[in-house]
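User: I'm new to structure prediction. If I give you an amino acid sequence, what do you actually give back? Let's try with this one:
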Amino acid sequence: MLLLLVAVKNSGKLLVGFIEDHAVPYVLKTDDIEMGCVMAEALTLLVPSLAEINASPHKLAVIFDFLSGSCAEFKAWEEELRYIRAIHAKNVAEAQDARILQKRYLNLAARRQLKGYLNLELAYPEITTDKCPVFETWNDEFYWLVGLMDGLQAVLNDLASEGSAKVPLGISLKVGRGANCLDNEKWWGLPNAIQVAIWVSFPENMPEEIDPLESLESAIQTGLKQGMRVVQVIAAKIHIGLGDSEKVKAIIRKNVETRNSIKANPQFLFLDKIATIQLRAISDSLWTEATGKRTPIGGLGSFWDDGQNTVDTVDILDIL
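Assistant: Good question. You get back a string of structure tokens that encode the predicted 3D arrangement of the chain. For your 320 residues, that looks like this:
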């Protein structure tokens, strides 16, 4: 009986250790985002329950909440496209319905990502202070980075859903301070890109001596040199917020171009594929606003206005 009790007591720690050491690295090496969503949404409620059997699952929850939040974002993007198509068709009721559902999914994404950020606070209380934690392993830094992304995305998605998730705006300041705890070169330019996103969203916090767009461009180059294109997604979203669609197009073109010259880091194919999907979603939005339909198959990196004599034609094979 004593051995049984000891085994039960340690089972949570063993399971958390297995997921951290084997399951998470395995998923990051894959490029099947759809299966990743299924896994994340299935395990998001299971992982916190491990706290009931003597485990500390907060770090894992940071990752699973981020992934499940991203899955809700994917659904919000589809509703945005439906909204734009309805506007093209002058279908007011359809447009209103799509916008309502889009905001529901953004609310869901924000709530999931907020939980991820709050788990970061439980795992690393230093995020609420001006101090940086002592990172004992590479994993600790990675969880910290993902938790910062949770906080940033929670704030932005909540703003996009009209504040329906009630994410505290003060999280953005904590995320900004937390980004300074990571080496920008080591972490693919993401810490600086996160900081720029916060400065652009909340310009009252921007230092006068820094040009945020120069810092952002430097962050992009840092990521690309290491075969990590996730930073391009943050950059594209920043330029969307600034209303610079030409710069957004240039980032998408650069993403496609670098895939032929810079191989993705094999340890992080999952993150690279997420970057592609997010940039494709942005491209789909631009295409749909201009033409009523999303990016053509094989057309990522090209745009409807690239040629001077572009004619809008329909290929019967596309319909079939």
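You can read the tokens as a compact description of the fold. Here is one thing that stands out. The two ends are 65 Å apart (CA to CA).
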